[in-house]
Amino acid sequence: MNRYGSLTARTAREAAEWSTGRVIRANLRAVVGRAYPRVIGLTREPSWVFFEILLPFLAVSAFVFVYRALEAPEEFIGFVVLGGAMTAFWLNVVWMMAAQFYWEKDQGNLELYFTAPMHLMSILAGMAIGGLVMTSSRALAVIGIGSVLYGVTYQIEQPLLLALVFLLTMIPLYGMGMLFASLFLLWGREAFHLAQLLQEPIYFLGGVNFPLGALRSFGPLIGVVMSTLPLGVGLDAMRQLAFRDMTGVLPVGIEMAILVAMGVVFIIGARLALGYLEHLARKEGRLTLRWQ
Amino acid sequence: MPDDLAIHARGVTRVYKAKPNPVTALGGVDLDVQPGDYFGLLGPNGAGKTTLIKILTTLLLPTSGEAKVAGFDVVRETAKIRRVINMVSGGEQSGYGLLTLREQLWMFSQFYGMPIADGWRRVDELIEITGLTEQKDQKVRTLSTGQRQKLNFARGLLNDPWVLFLDEPTLGLDVAAARDLREHTLAWKAAAPGRTLLLTTHYMVEAEQLCDRIAIVDRGKILALGTPEELRRRVQAESIFRIELDQLPQNGGLAAIGDLPGVLSAVHADEDSADSASSDRVALKVALADDSALTNVVTAVAERGSHLVGLAKSEPSLEDVFVELVGRGFGDEHDEEQPS
Questions:
Q1: Single pTM value for the model
Q2: Rounded distance, CA B135 to CA B161, Å?
Q3: Which of B26, B68, B83 to mutate to test the interface with A (most CBs of A within 10 A)?
């Protein structure tokens, strides 16, 4: 092989024939490739410690002091700390998943993704896995600092089940981000505003800073809306497993089933939206073109 | 056979929806590029060059017509096309600024499906080839425009593409960086003759230096296609020489030269020299039916007391060809490819 590379197949047509195994391997490598900048970003931008741990922690602290002033049960402090940690994932999904394709288009990356020999779902999966790894460290930091500082006591009887619920929450949560990545690009010219639009309602409906059971007084509609959001369902189930006296909106088993169903729906939805996005991009000449 | 061609296009059109009227970016392009060809699309901004590249790289669907790359249909067989192509655009800002140059290339190697270790090895080879060794651990966002474009070029070679699309690759580069990039492109070609290049440019020199064949494109149509020599011949059938003499020929002067057999015309080459009595030499522009008539001219000049001090054949540039075909120069550009 000379320095400029060499052609290993006899013809281009021969080179284009890939086995199913090679296609799968190529897509898995694309997942790793796209996850890489997210993971490596942890070591490159130390400012994240300030912006993504200390600043969000101030919001957590505010609620802690409100609950203490109101002499709320001590579990509420734990609810808020856990909610604060899960907030990091939601922020990651809305800013670094949902809005990402929009920014990738601006940079010209989207064109290169389209012309590369892998499925765009691999790019989304890479973004999700990289984001999950990156955000887990931030979430753990919030839990660690919050628990020590405010003396949170957890009563975890089934740690493996808690870990499973966490994973089951992440699948639909990031699946939703994968779906929104295409939808943001299809709907909006300004991803920033769409991300902002989603941020606060999800904080509320996800019960980030209070137990969702408090919304029962609003009737069943709130429960229905909440149960379409992975963050709310997952957080409610995790709180039940982390704090013995917590009464959830639904039993943990049912919430797990909802999370599984949501995971399937969001991943399939993301796949379909991506297919539609690519079709529209090629047909109308928009989306991949920077000036559109 | 279209399937044996590197690129095949028949009647390819592309119309963009736009207000108040749709914009026709391509108006029926026919094109065949053989494997191993270095092919140039030469034309001003808005000519439709980039639209054609986007169709061939599967980013856009043609509104009508048929296009194939490596024998695969751009509408239905996108996955196969993407395995054998790559694309580099001028001014490209792809990738992520927080990565180092080496990491960025490796990341893209993963998008092209290269095994992890092979990816790093190939990245290091390309870094060395493109002269980016000193910058390899530098963050991408700190690179200069020229270094950035070298990085983009290296990315384009990562997967050893069979068909490489270069869309205005030297746009915004200084002279040295542009020349460097052209040299790499030629070396890449020499390394494996089966490789095909489709280059879009509005730089005449670049097209002439890199391309075996050139299509001159304007307003979505191919106006002329051929080797650079063939294109020049289209606008200039005669041979034109610039002849420098120590003085004007005696006994009839220019008119006598113009009347020689095989000479179509003879005029002063520079307006200045026609009037300048103090000039120590005169330059003539002599058009000949063919090169053989030059002997008559040289002999006649000597017989009339003049001495030949310079002789050069004057070739039309590709810009002359463009002006001849379109009726305007590259400077009179329009932007109809980008609807508002």
A1: 0.83
A2: 25
A3: B83
